[in-house]
From TrEMBL:
Alphabetical list of InterPro entries matching this protein: NUDIX_hydrolase-like_dom_sf, NUDIX_hydrolase_dom
Pfam families for the chain: NUDIX
Name assigned to this protein: NUDIX domain-containing protein
Record-annotated Nudix hydrolase domain positions: 8-139
Length: 165
């Protein structure tokens, strides 16, 4: 396999936010229609996973997210025949808390609204999930999975890349 053919998964982060038995989700426009997702998005170059999940949660929910725990690393593969896309996602999921929505702050493009759902309500509509990881992350949180945030290490070279050679 050549370097250009090398497998390159898409790295994403997700915020799993619970309050009084309900989980904060986003309803978003996708090529497959309107879907439910945890507040989530792509890790950007130069960004730590913690910084990324805080940014994504703010952009998609208009709420400040405070990560408290690492839930885990999740992988899933998704095929979009119409676009000839075959993507494997590596999701780093964090749980934590949010404050109230920031008045006047718009939600990210493509996000229709936020909503709170119980695990059972979410489990009852799998056809509306952006990926199978949406429910899996909620189930793991509900089951009590909590890892230290220090489980995910981000080297300072993310901000100032080291030169080799």
């Amino acid at each position: 396999m050549s370097a250009t053919d090398r497998f390159r998964p898409s790295v994403t982060v997700a915020a799993v936010i619970a309050n009084a038995g309900r989980y904060l989700l986003v309803e978003e426009d996708t090529p497959e229609g309107v879907m439910l997702n945890n507040p989530a998005g792509h890790l950007e170059q130069g960004e730590s996973p913690l910084d990324a999940v805080v940014r994504e949660a703010l952009e998609e929910t208009a709420r400040h997210f405070v990560p408290e725990h690492f839930l885990g690393v999740y992988l899933a593969r998704f095929v979009r025949p119409a676009r000839l896309e075959d993507v494997t996602y590596v999701r780093l999921a964090f749980s934590g808390a949010v404050g109230e929505a920031i008045a006047g702050r718009a939600l990210d493009t493509g996000i229709r609204r936020t909503l709170w759902m119980t695990e059972a309500e979410l489990a009852a509509c799998p056809e509306r999930h952006r990926s199978p990881l949406v429910l899996q992350c909620v189930q793991d949180h509900a089951a009590g999975r909590r890892l230290p945030l220090e489980t995910v290490f981000a080297h300072a070279s993310l901000q100032a890349p080291q030169r080799k050679g």
